[in-house]
Fold:
Amino acid sequence: MITFFSNFINEHQIPFCEAMYKKTNGGFRFVATEPIDRERLKMGFVDKSEHFSYVIKSYENDSSYKMAMELGLSSDVVIIGSAPDDFIKERLDQNKLTFRYFERFFKEGRIRILDPRVFKAHYKQDFRYRNKNLYMLCASAYTAPDCRFILSYPDKTYKWGYFPETEQLPYDSIAKAKQKENKVKILWAGRMIDWKHPEAAIYLSKQLESYNLPFSLDMIGDGEMRSNLENIVRNENLQDDVSFLGSMPPDQVRKNMMSADIFLFTSDRNEGWGAVLNESMSTACAVVASREIGSVPYLIEDSKNGLVYNRKDKNSLFNCVKRLIENKSFRETLGKNAYDTIKNLWNAEVATDRLLTLIECINNGTPVPYTTGPCSKD
Structure:
C-alpha cells in the first residue's frame, strides 16, 4: 500500500493519484487532512474528493482519523506533503520508507533559518531524520539546494513537481490553432498579485509597441492589481494591443493557450512550482519564463524548449519576446519541443512509473536509472 498525505486533493495532484491507483491495482490511498478553505473555493477551487474512492478525509470523523493514522504506520510507502507529522511520527521512528514532498523551504531567503521557530521546525522535520529511510521529492528546483543548506536529505533528493491534467491534441491540430492573425498572440494568465508580476507584461507591451512589433497581449485573471494595470494601459494608449479577459474556468484558459503563440510566466521566487508552465508547454506555446520560478529549471532547457529570462534585468524579457516575434521558425521550434517535453517526460504517467521504480531501487539498494526528468537525482 502506498499512501499520500496532503491537506486536500487538488487539480494538480489528481492525474498522479489516478495513475498511482491504477498502476498499483488499487493499492493507493490519498489522505486529505483538512477541508478546502473558503478563500480557495472563492478562487475557483473545487472539492472533488467525493469523486475518488481512494480518498480518506481524516478530519471528517474519528473513524477516518484512526484509519489515516493506521495507514501512516502500516503502509509500505508514505508520501507526505502539506500535512501534520503526527501521521508519520511512529513510522519515522521505525525507519519505514517515507518521502517528503515540498517546494522550496526559504521563499523569503535563507536568512529565515536564524528565526528560532524556523530553525526548530527544520531540525524536527528534516535534520534529525537525515540518516533515516526518509527521502525528498522536490516540487521545486530550489528544494534540493535548500536541503543541502540545512544539511538534510544527503544524496536523497529527487526531481519531482506537480503534474496537472495535460491532455494533448495531436501537435498538428494545435499548430493550426495558432497564428490566425497577423499579430503574434501573447498570453499571460494568473492571479494579478504582486509576486506574480503582471505589470511586467504591461511594461513589455510598451516596449514592443515602441519598436512597432506586431503583437497582441491577452491578460487572463483577476486580483488586487488589475484596476491599476488597466489604468496604465489606458494612460499609455495600449488599448489596441492589450486585452483584459478576466477570470475563467481552466478549460477556457487552456483554449486560449491553444491559440497563443507566446506564453509569459513572470513570477518571482514565491512561485513554488507553477503548474501553468506544464499547461502552456503542453499546448505548444513558446514560453518565456523567469528563472526564479520553481518549475522552470526542471522543465525548460533555455533556447531549446523555451526561453528563461532574468527578472532583475529590465530588458531581458523584452529581448526574449522580440527574438520570438521576429523569428517564426524559432518560435515554432520552441513550442514543438515544449509540447514534446510534457508529452514524453513531464507528465503523471511517466512520473508514476518512475516513482514505482525509484521505490524498488531504494528497497533493493540499486542505483536509480534516470539522469533527467522525474525521479532523477537532484
In short: The chain has two domains: 2-164+347-364, 171-344. The mean pLDDT is 94.
